[in-house]
Amino acid sequence: MTDTERPRLPLIEICVEGIDGLLAAQAAGADRVELCASLVEGGITPSLGTVRAALELATIPFHVIVRPRGGDFLYSDAEYGSMLADVRALSELGVAGVVVGCLNADGTIDEKRMSQLVQAAGHLNVTCHRAFDMTRDPAEALEALIRSKVGRVLTSGQRDTALEGVALLGTSSDRRGSASSSSAAADSTQTTSPKCGKEPD
User: Fold this and answer.
1) CA distance 35 to 46
2) Is 3.20.20.380 the CATH classification of the domain at 10-186?
3) Element (H, E) at 176
């Protein structure tokens, strides 16, 4: 079998809490990490000190979640302002990417804010987290994210687990074409276990 005939191995991305979680995932063979604080809240923005330590110690790329609090994804102007500031600071620090998500009260993607976050991120990769799974219409949401220039989506197919949401994951993959990529998220209801995303190399 030639190299071109070999099946591509999945890229394994793990959501971790803090620097110890990053180092454990790295030692276990993860390809990429989503760095968070407080996974019990679904992941919130880690401190800049944690990010700086990760930059010193990580040998794999990591993306940083930018989420000011747990709960829903409807943010006040003050909360959103802090998100913009965090994204700009992370861009200056030189992380590989950021993970964000903003919704409107009607369950649609907040395109204006998402576009502004992408612009603030500059050269960084931008992923929409599982706010996508809270949207009223996944096809509509995916198109909104593509228009906002978001590069990837972390989703379980709007179900509790990626296995349950596999039908939507396949549909989303067909719709996105080359505009963006999606990662399957494992069960995030088990707060003691990190979510895992997989995508082809």
Assistant:
1) 7
2) yes
3) helix 166-176
Element (H, E) at 181: strand 181-184
* H/E run at residue 36: strand 32-36
Neighbours of 184 (CB within 10 A): 22
Tell me the C-alpha distance between 141 and 158, whole Å: 12
Q: Contact, 89 vs 48, CB < 8 A?
A: yes
Angle between helices 111-121 and 77-93 (to 10 degrees): 20
Let me know: does 150 contact 114? Beta carbons within 8 Å: yes
The pLDDT score that the predictor gives to residue 12 is 83
How would residue 9 be classed by pLDDT, with cut points 50, 70 and 90? low
| pTM, full prediction | 0.78
Q: Map residue 103 onto helix, strand or coil.
A: strand
CA distances from 130 to 27, 53, 99, 104, 181 (A): 26, 26, 10, 14, 14
Alpha-carbon dihedral 65, 40, 69, 197, rounded to 10 degrees: 30
pLDDT tens digits for 58-97? 999 999 999 999 999 999 999 999 999 999 999 999 999 9
At residue 167, the pLDDT reads 45
